[in-house]
Automatic annotation (TrEMBL):
Signal peptide positions (record): none
InterPro entries: Inosine/uridine_hydrolase_dom, IUNH, Ribo_hydro-like
Record-level Gene Ontology MF annotations: hydrolase activity
Lineage: Bacteria, Bacillati, Actinomycetota, Actinomycetes, Kitasatosporales
Superkingdom: Bacteria
Inosine/uridine-preferring nucleoside hydrolase domain location: 11-305
Name of the featured protein: Nucleoside hydrolase
Keyword annotations from UniProtKB, A to Z: Glycosidase, Hydrolase
Pfam families in UniProt: IU_nuc_hydro
Length: 320
Protein backbone atom coordinates (compact mmCIF):
# COMPACT_ATOMS: atom_id res chain seq x y z
CA UNK A 1 0.00 0.00 0.00
CA UNK A 2 0.96 3.64 -0.44
CA UNK A 3 0.70 6.18 2.36
CA UNK A 4 -2.98 6.41 1.55
CA UNK A 5 -5.05 3.48 2.73
CA UNK A 6 -6.82 1.31 0.16
CA UNK A 7 -8.80 3.92 -1.76
CA UNK A 8 -10.86 1.16 -3.41
CA UNK A 9 -12.72 0.96 -0.10
CA UNK A 10 -15.69 3.24 0.34
CA UNK A 11 -15.50 5.86 3.08
CA UNK A 12 -18.36 6.96 5.32
CA UNK A 13 -17.82 9.76 7.85
CA UNK A 14 -20.22 10.29 10.74
CA UNK A 15 -19.63 13.69 12.31
CA UNK A 16 -20.85 16.47 14.59
CA UNK A 17 -18.84 19.09 12.71
CA UNK A 18 -19.30 22.75 13.53
CA UNK A 19 -17.38 25.72 12.15
CA UNK A 20 -13.63 25.09 12.09
CA UNK A 21 -13.57 22.47 14.84
CA UNK A 22 -11.51 19.28 14.84
CA UNK A 23 -14.21 17.44 12.82
CA UNK A 24 -13.98 20.12 10.12
CA UNK A 25 -10.19 19.94 10.08
CA UNK A 26 -10.42 16.16 9.61
CA UNK A 27 -12.82 16.66 6.68
CA UNK A 28 -10.51 19.28 5.12
CA UNK A 29 -7.66 16.76 5.44
CA UNK A 30 -9.60 13.89 3.86
CA UNK A 31 -10.91 16.07 1.02
CA UNK A 32 -7.41 17.40 0.28
CA UNK A 33 -6.03 13.85 0.44
CA UNK A 34 -8.60 12.83 -2.20
CA UNK A 35 -10.00 10.29 0.29
CA UNK A 36 -13.47 11.60 -0.44
CA UNK A 37 -16.38 10.10 1.53
CA UNK A 38 -19.22 8.56 -0.45
CA UNK A 39 -21.49 9.54 2.42
CA UNK A 40 -21.35 11.98 5.33
CA UNK A 41 -23.87 11.58 8.14
CA UNK A 42 -24.35 14.03 10.99
CA UNK A 43 -25.23 13.51 14.63
CA UNK A 44 -25.94 15.59 17.73
CA UNK A 45 -22.88 16.41 19.83
CA UNK A 46 -21.03 19.67 19.36
CA UNK A 47 -24.32 21.06 18.05
CA UNK A 48 -27.47 19.63 16.51
CA UNK A 49 -27.36 17.13 13.66
CA UNK A 50 -29.27 19.70 11.60
CA UNK A 51 -26.63 22.38 12.11
CA UNK A 52 -23.81 19.91 11.47
CA UNK A 53 -25.37 18.88 8.16
CA UNK A 54 -25.38 22.49 7.01
CA UNK A 55 -21.74 22.91 7.96
CA UNK A 56 -20.73 19.66 6.24
CA UNK A 57 -22.49 20.65 3.01
CA UNK A 58 -20.85 24.07 3.02
CA UNK A 59 -17.42 22.55 3.59
CA UNK A 60 -17.88 20.07 0.72
CA UNK A 61 -18.98 22.90 -1.58
CA UNK A 62 -15.88 24.88 -0.61
CA UNK A 63 -13.82 21.95 -1.91
CA UNK A 64 -15.99 21.78 -5.07
CA UNK A 65 -17.20 18.33 -4.06
CA UNK A 66 -20.67 16.85 -4.50
CA UNK A 67 -21.09 14.56 -1.48
CA UNK A 68 -24.28 13.06 -0.12
CA UNK A 69 -24.76 14.59 3.36
CA UNK A 70 -27.59 13.11 5.42
CA UNK A 71 -28.81 14.57 8.68
CA UNK A 72 -28.89 12.09 11.54
CA UNK A 73 -30.19 11.61 15.03
CA UNK A 74 -30.71 14.40 17.52
CA UNK A 75 -31.13 12.14 20.56
CA UNK A 76 -28.99 9.30 21.97
CA UNK A 77 -30.04 5.67 22.30
CA UNK A 78 -30.59 6.15 26.03
CA UNK A 79 -33.49 8.54 25.43
CA UNK A 80 -35.93 6.92 27.85
CA UNK A 81 -37.00 7.41 31.44
CA UNK A 82 -35.78 7.32 34.13
CA UNK A 83 -32.29 7.09 32.60
CA UNK A 84 -32.68 10.39 30.75
CA UNK A 85 -33.19 12.28 34.02
CA UNK A 86 -30.44 10.28 35.78
CA UNK A 87 -27.93 11.36 33.13
CA UNK A 88 -29.19 14.94 33.19
CA UNK A 89 -28.55 14.98 36.95
CA UNK A 90 -25.02 13.65 36.43
CA UNK A 91 -24.32 16.45 33.94
CA UNK A 92 -25.89 19.11 36.19
CA UNK A 93 -23.46 18.12 38.96
CA UNK A 94 -20.37 18.65 36.76
CA UNK A 95 -18.22 21.80 37.13
CA UNK A 96 -19.77 24.75 35.29
CA UNK A 97 -16.94 24.99 32.76
CA UNK A 98 -17.22 21.34 31.64
CA UNK A 99 -17.71 21.05 27.88
CA UNK A 100 -20.98 19.19 27.31
CA UNK A 101 -22.14 21.09 24.19
CA UNK A 102 -25.64 19.98 23.16
CA UNK A 103 -26.04 18.05 26.45
CA UNK A 104 -26.18 21.21 28.57
CA UNK A 105 -28.63 20.41 31.39
CA UNK A 106 -30.36 23.79 31.08
CA UNK A 107 -31.11 23.29 27.37
CA UNK A 108 -34.82 22.58 27.44
CA UNK A 109 -34.84 22.27 23.65
CA UNK A 110 -32.69 19.17 23.99
CA UNK A 111 -33.90 17.57 27.22
CA UNK A 112 -37.63 18.26 27.02
CA UNK A 113 -38.39 17.40 23.41
CA UNK A 114 -38.44 14.07 21.63
CA UNK A 115 -37.39 15.21 18.16
CA UNK A 116 -35.43 12.22 16.90
CA UNK A 117 -33.83 13.73 13.79
CA UNK A 118 -33.11 12.59 10.26
CA UNK A 119 -32.65 9.34 8.31
CA UNK A 120 -28.86 8.96 8.60
CA UNK A 121 -29.03 5.47 10.19
CA UNK A 122 -31.07 4.19 7.27
CA UNK A 123 -28.71 5.84 4.76
CA UNK A 124 -25.73 4.34 6.56
CA UNK A 125 -27.27 0.87 6.59
CA UNK A 126 -28.12 1.07 2.88
CA UNK A 127 -24.59 2.23 2.01
CA UNK A 128 -23.02 -0.64 3.96
CA UNK A 129 -25.37 -3.18 2.37
CA UNK A 130 -24.30 -2.11 -1.12
CA UNK A 131 -20.57 -1.71 -0.44
CA UNK A 132 -18.11 -4.57 -0.80
CA UNK A 133 -15.91 -2.94 1.82
CA UNK A 134 -16.17 0.40 3.62
CA UNK A 135 -14.27 2.30 6.28
CA UNK A 136 -16.60 4.06 8.72
CA UNK A 137 -14.97 6.96 10.55
CA UNK A 138 -16.87 7.99 13.69
CA UNK A 139 -15.99 11.54 14.75
CA UNK A 140 -18.91 12.14 17.12
CA UNK A 141 -21.31 10.13 19.31
CA UNK A 142 -22.01 6.74 17.70
CA UNK A 143 -25.82 6.98 17.70
CA UNK A 144 -26.33 6.83 13.93
CA UNK A 145 -23.87 3.98 13.50
CA UNK A 146 -25.43 1.92 16.31
CA UNK A 147 -28.89 2.34 14.80
CA UNK A 148 -27.50 1.26 11.42
CA UNK A 149 -25.81 -1.78 12.99
CA UNK A 150 -29.16 -2.94 14.36
CA UNK A 151 -30.48 -3.07 10.78
CA UNK A 152 -27.63 -5.16 9.37
CA UNK A 153 -26.83 -8.87 9.33
CA UNK A 154 -23.41 -10.05 10.59
CA UNK A 155 -22.58 -11.17 7.05
CA UNK A 156 -22.70 -7.52 5.97
CA UNK A 157 -20.83 -5.98 8.92
CA UNK A 158 -17.89 -8.36 8.55
CA UNK A 159 -16.93 -6.57 5.30
CA UNK A 160 -16.51 -3.19 6.97
CA UNK A 161 -14.07 -1.48 9.33
CA UNK A 162 -14.96 0.99 12.09
CA UNK A 163 -12.55 3.70 13.30
CA UNK A 164 -13.61 5.51 16.48
CA UNK A 165 -12.30 8.92 17.50
CA UNK A 166 -12.82 9.13 21.23
CA UNK A 167 -13.09 7.21 24.43
CA UNK A 168 -10.38 7.43 27.05
CA UNK A 169 -8.30 4.99 29.07
CA UNK A 170 -6.20 7.43 31.10
CA UNK A 171 -8.66 10.21 31.95
CA UNK A 172 -11.68 11.94 30.44
CA UNK A 173 -12.57 15.48 29.42
CA UNK A 174 -16.18 15.42 30.71
CA UNK A 175 -15.81 13.36 33.88
CA UNK A 176 -12.69 11.93 35.45
CA UNK A 177 -13.00 8.81 33.29
CA UNK A 178 -15.21 9.71 30.31
CA UNK A 179 -14.42 11.46 27.02
CA UNK A 180 -17.19 13.48 25.35
CA UNK A 181 -18.14 11.18 22.45
CA UNK A 182 -18.30 8.12 24.71
CA UNK A 183 -20.15 10.08 27.40
CA UNK A 184 -22.75 11.44 24.94
CA UNK A 185 -24.01 7.97 23.99
CA UNK A 186 -22.28 5.02 25.70
CA UNK A 187 -25.19 2.73 24.84
CA UNK A 188 -24.53 3.37 21.15
CA UNK A 189 -20.82 2.77 21.64
CA UNK A 190 -21.65 -0.51 23.40
CA UNK A 191 -23.72 -1.65 20.40
CA UNK A 192 -20.85 -0.82 18.03
CA UNK A 193 -18.25 -2.56 20.18
CA UNK A 194 -20.28 -5.79 20.20
CA UNK A 195 -20.89 -5.82 16.43
CA UNK A 196 -18.91 -8.11 14.14
CA UNK A 197 -16.86 -5.64 12.11
CA UNK A 198 -13.94 -6.76 9.95
CA UNK A 199 -11.93 -4.65 12.39
CA UNK A 200 -12.60 -1.99 15.02
CA UNK A 201 -9.96 0.59 15.95
CA UNK A 202 -10.33 3.12 18.76
CA UNK A 203 -8.09 6.19 18.93
CA UNK A 204 -8.58 7.41 22.51
CA UNK A 205 -8.39 10.94 23.89
CA UNK A 206 -4.87 10.63 25.28
CA UNK A 207 -3.59 9.83 21.77
CA UNK A 208 -5.83 12.35 19.99
CA UNK A 209 -4.49 15.15 22.21
CA UNK A 210 -0.81 14.53 21.44
CA UNK A 211 -0.35 16.79 18.36
CA UNK A 212 -0.82 20.53 18.79
CA UNK A 213 -1.25 22.73 15.72
CA UNK A 214 0.82 25.74 16.71
CA UNK A 215 0.48 29.37 15.59
CA UNK A 216 3.36 29.15 13.10
CA UNK A 217 1.74 26.22 11.28
CA UNK A 218 -1.65 27.95 11.30
CA UNK A 219 -0.09 31.07 9.79
CA UNK A 220 1.64 29.04 7.07
CA UNK A 221 -1.63 27.32 6.16
CA UNK A 222 -3.48 30.68 6.18
CA UNK A 223 -1.12 31.94 3.48
CA UNK A 224 -2.02 29.09 1.10
CA UNK A 225 -4.70 29.50 -1.54
CA UNK A 226 -6.60 26.45 -0.36
CA UNK A 227 -10.03 25.88 1.18
CA UNK A 228 -8.59 25.44 4.67
CA UNK A 229 -6.20 28.36 4.21
CA UNK A 230 -9.11 30.60 3.27
CA UNK A 231 -11.25 29.32 6.15
CA UNK A 232 -8.49 29.79 8.74
CA UNK A 233 -7.68 33.26 7.43
CA UNK A 234 -11.34 34.29 7.70
CA UNK A 235 -11.58 32.81 11.19
CA UNK A 236 -8.41 34.56 12.35
CA UNK A 237 -9.58 37.92 11.02
CA UNK A 238 -13.02 37.57 12.61
CA UNK A 239 -11.91 35.91 15.85
CA UNK A 240 -8.20 36.55 16.50
CA UNK A 241 -6.30 33.81 18.28
CA UNK A 242 -4.55 36.23 20.63
CA UNK A 243 -2.23 34.50 23.10
CA UNK A 244 -3.70 31.02 22.56
CA UNK A 245 -1.08 28.36 21.85
CA UNK A 246 -3.12 26.81 19.05
CA UNK A 247 -6.06 27.71 16.85
CA UNK A 248 -8.11 24.55 17.32
CA UNK A 249 -7.43 21.03 18.59
CA UNK A 250 -6.84 18.55 15.78
CA UNK A 251 -8.06 15.47 17.62
CA UNK A 252 -10.19 14.10 14.78
CA UNK A 253 -7.35 14.70 12.32
CA UNK A 254 -5.40 12.10 14.31
CA UNK A 255 -8.18 9.52 13.93
CA UNK A 256 -8.52 10.33 10.22
CA UNK A 257 -4.75 9.94 9.80
CA UNK A 258 -4.75 6.54 11.52
CA UNK A 259 -7.48 5.41 9.14
CA UNK A 260 -6.11 6.94 5.94
CA UNK A 261 -2.35 6.59 6.27
CA UNK A 262 -0.95 3.15 7.09
CA UNK A 263 2.62 4.49 7.07
CA UNK A 264 1.96 6.79 10.02
CA UNK A 265 4.27 5.76 12.90
CA UNK A 266 1.97 4.34 15.54
CA UNK A 267 1.45 1.50 18.01
CA UNK A 268 -1.72 -0.37 18.93
CA UNK A 269 -2.69 -3.19 21.25
CA UNK A 270 -5.19 -5.97 20.56
CA UNK A 271 -7.85 -6.90 23.08
CA UNK A 272 -11.40 -6.13 24.17
CA UNK A 273 -12.79 -2.64 24.70
CA UNK A 274 -15.90 -2.13 26.82
CA UNK A 275 -17.87 0.90 27.97
CA UNK A 276 -19.73 1.53 31.23
CA UNK A 277 -23.43 2.42 30.96
CA UNK A 278 -24.03 2.80 34.70
CA UNK A 279 -24.71 6.51 35.44
CA UNK A 280 -22.08 6.38 38.20
CA UNK A 281 -19.35 5.69 35.60
CA UNK A 282 -21.20 6.84 32.49
CA UNK A 283 -19.05 6.50 29.37
CA UNK A 284 -15.92 5.15 31.08
CA UNK A 285 -13.82 2.88 28.84
CA UNK A 286 -12.09 -0.31 29.91
CA UNK A 287 -9.56 -2.28 27.89
CA UNK A 288 -8.48 -5.88 28.43
CA UNK A 289 -5.36 -6.72 26.47
CA UNK A 290 -5.09 -10.13 24.78
CA UNK A 291 -7.07 -12.04 22.20
CA UNK A 292 -10.02 -9.87 21.26
CA UNK A 293 -11.82 -8.19 18.37
CA UNK A 294 -10.57 -4.64 18.95
CA UNK A 295 -7.44 -2.55 18.47
CA UNK A 296 -6.62 0.34 20.79
CA UNK A 297 -4.14 2.87 19.44
CA UNK A 298 -1.66 3.65 22.23
CA UNK A 299 0.83 5.92 20.46
CA UNK A 300 1.24 8.02 17.34
CA UNK A 301 4.12 10.22 16.24
CA UNK A 302 2.62 13.70 16.78
CA UNK A 303 5.26 15.44 14.66
CA UNK A 304 4.52 13.11 11.75
CA UNK A 305 0.79 13.84 12.03
CA UNK A 306 1.43 17.59 11.99
CA UNK A 307 3.88 17.46 9.07
CA UNK A 308 1.59 15.31 6.94
CA UNK A 309 -1.53 17.29 7.80
CA UNK A 310 0.08 20.60 6.86
CA UNK A 311 1.56 19.18 3.66
CA UNK A 312 -1.76 17.73 2.52
CA UNK A 313 -4.03 20.68 3.32
CA UNK A 314 -1.54 23.17 1.83
CA UNK A 315 -1.63 21.62 -1.65
CA UNK A 316 -3.40 23.79 -4.26
CA UNK A 317 -6.24 21.99 -6.00
CA UNK A 318 -4.37 21.93 -9.32
CA UNK A 319 -1.61 19.74 -7.87
CA UNK A 320 -3.89 17.03 -6.45
Amino acid sequence: MSSEQDTARHLIVDTDTLGINDDALALHYLFALARTPQLITTVFGNSTATASAGHARALARHHLLDIDVVQGREKPLWWYEPLRQDVRAVIAALPADTYVASLRPDDAGFWETDLQGGPAPEALAAALKHSRGADVLALGPLTNIARAVRQLAPSILVRHRLFISGGSIKGGNVTEHAEFNAFADPEALKVCLSAGWESLVMVPLEVLQAPRLGPAAVDRIRRTDTPLGQALDKLERESPRGESKDREPIWDVVAASVMADDTLPSRAETGTISVDTDPANWGAIRFRQGDGPHRLVTHIDPDAVLRRFEAVVSQPRSSR
